[in-house]
Specification:
about 200 residues, alpha+beta, five-stranded antiparallel sheet, Alpha-Beta Plaits
Length: about 200
């Protein structure tokens, strides 16, 4: 049938066939390409969203980590000031170190029974020291600079002795540290009432 067509018509038919093939190829290829591009764009948007969420989660994690570290640091500082254990050895070591720096002699120490209060316990220790006036003053000042809270009470200066131009004194005092009582510790209120009743 095509053989009966004039040459110009054959060229036209051939060109039309080529155009149709090109159109079909373009439609199929471009359609697949467009679908791939759309899918990749969707995937990219999803990945961008996941990345943003990951960055947000990381920022929140870093904030929580910094807050936890700060809380732990505050807790460590609080434990230095008000430990949860009696820690008599550490208590005595702190006092001894201050005495050494002040140049005063710690001649005797006697731990005393704890005195429970409602939220904390008193941890007393009787001390006996000897030293010169300025050494004694330096010792009391040094105790006040310690991380752990220690009160010096019932201070008695006796037995003055001349040592050249200085006077050496004997010091009796009650050093009282404190420890925190765990929340919900049994008998706290009852102990306080008993202590009051015993003092009457």
């Amino acid at each position: 049938m095509l053989s009966k067509l004039p040459p110009l018509a054959k060229v036209g038919v051939g060109a039309l066939f080529v155009v149709l093939i090109g159109v079909a190829y373009f439609v199929v290829f471009y359609g697949d390409l467009a679908s791939s591009i759309t899918a990749e764009k969707s995937r990219e948007e999803k990945l961008r969203g996941e990345l943003a969420e990951a960055r947000k989660a990381e920022f929140s994690y870093q904030q929580d980590l910094a807050e936890l570290s700060e809380r732990q640091q505050r807790q460590r500082e609080l434990v230095k000031i008000l430990p949860t254990d009696t820690e008599y050895p550490a208590f005595l070591s702190s006092v001894q170190n201050v005495a050494n720096v002040a140049g005063i002699a710690l001649t005797a120490w006697t731990p005393q029974p704890e005195v429970p209060e409602q939220f904390y316990s008193r941890v007393p220790m009787k001390l006996q020291l000897t030293g010169r006036y300025h050494q004694i003053a330096k010792f009391f000042h040094g105790v006040g600079q310690l991380d752990r809270v220690i009160n010096m009470e019932n201070i008695s200066l006796t037995d003055p002795k001349k040592d050249g131009e200085d006077t050496v004194l004997k010091v009796d005092a009650l050093a009282t540290a404190f420890r925190a009582k765990p929340e919900g510790a049994p008998g706290a209120a009852g102990d306080k009432r008993s202590a009051k009743a015993g003092g009457q």
